[in-house]
Design a protein that fits this description.
Blueprint lengths: L1 E3 L12 H9 L4 E2 L21 H17 L5 E5 L1 H12 L6 E5 L7 H16 L2 H5 L6 H12 L20 E6 L8 H9 L4 E5 L6 H4 L1 H13 L1
Parallel strand pairs: 1-2, 1-3, 3-4, 4-5, 5-6
Protein name: Alpha/beta hydrolase
InterPro entries: AB_hydrolase_1, AB_hydrolase_fold, AB_hydrolase_sf
Keywords: Hydrolase
C-alpha cells in the first residue's frame, strides 16, 4: 500500500498509522514525502506550483517512483491532496492499481476549503506554526507556501476533476468526517456519482484527518475492502 500525504504532510507526520494499517490488512507499505516536503528536496523559493500540480504528481512523479522501486499494481491510500493524487493516478492508469482508499479528498474547490486555507496562512504568519512544521519538514516555508499559494491563487478556483474520475475501474473507498473543515460531503458524494463501485464512509465526530480522529473505523473499513 502506497501512502500519499496531505498538502502539509510528510513521512514523519503519518506517525505509526501506516504500520498499523498494513499489519491489519496484511500488506507491505511504502511511505514517501513528495518533492518540497519532509526530507525530500525543498521547493525553490522562486518556484510557483501551477493548478495542475496534483495531476503532475499523479501522472509523472508517482509512476516514476513506482517504476524505479519495482512496485506493480499497488493499493493507494491518500489523504486530502494525496487523496486527489490517488484518484487522478487511478483514473489515468486504471489497470495499474489494485484499489484506492481516499480520505478527505478534493475533487473540486469549495468556499469552505478556501476559507480554511486562508486561515491556515494567517496562522503560519502570526503563530508558531512554522516552528511546529519545522519538526517534519527540511524547509517549512517550502512545504507551506508551495501548497498554500497555489490553493489561494485565482487560477485554482476552477480546478475540478470530477469528469476525470469516470475511468476509475479499481475498488475504491472514500472516507470523510462530518466535521471536515476543508470540504463538504459533496467531495466524496461526487466521487460516488462518477465511480459506481465506490464505497463511502461518512464518519461522525471526525474532522479533516479520519486516520487520526477515527483510526479504528478507518482500519476496519480498509481491511474489509482489501479482503474483498
Amino acid at each position: 500500500m502506497v501512502f500519499l500525504h496531505e498538502g502539509l504532510g510528510s513521512v514523519a507526520m503519518w506517525r505509526d498509522f501506516p504500520a498499523q494499517l498494513c499489519e491489519a490488512a496484511g500488506l507491505r507499505g511504502l511511505v514517501y514525502s513528495r518533492p518540497g516536503y519532509g526530507r525530500s528536496t525543498p521547493r525553490r523559493t522562486e518556484e510557483k506550483w501551477a493548478p495542475d500540480f496534483m495531476h503532475r504528481q499523479a501522472r509523472e512523479v508517482l509512476p516514476a517512483l513506482l517504476r524505479d522501486l519495482g512496485v506493480a499494481r499497488p493499493w493507494l491510500f491518500g489523504h486530502s491532496d494525496g487523496g486527489s493524487i490517488a484518484l487522478l493516478h487511478a483514473a489515468a492508469f486504471p489497470d495499474a492499481v489494485s484499489g484506492a482508499v481516499v480520505l478527505a479528498p478534493h475533487i473540486l474547490v469549495e468556499d469552505v476549503s478556501i476559507a480554511s486555507i486562508a486561515r491556515a496562512r494567517a496562522a503560519y504568519v502570526e503563530t508558531d506554526l512554522p516552528q511546529r512544521l519545522a519538526r517534519y519538514h527540511e524547509d517549512a516555508d517550502s512545504a507551506f507556501f508551495g501548497w498554500n499559494d497555489v490553493w489561494l491563487s485565482p487560477a485554482f478556483r476552477g480546478w475540478n476533476i470530477t469528469a476525470e474520475l469516470r475511468t476509475i475501474r479499481c475498488p475504491l473507498l472514500a472516507i470523510q468526517g462530518l466535521d471536515d473543515e476543508y470540504g463538504t460531503l459533496e467531495q466524496i458524494r461526487g466521487i460516488a456519482r462518477a465511480v459506481p463501485q465506490a464505497d463511502l464512509l461518512e464518519l461522525p465526530r471526525c474532522g479533516h484527518s479520519p486516520h487520526k480522529d477515527q483510526p479504528r473505523a478507518v482500519i476496519d473499513a480498509v481491511t474489509r475492502l482489501v479482503a474483498g
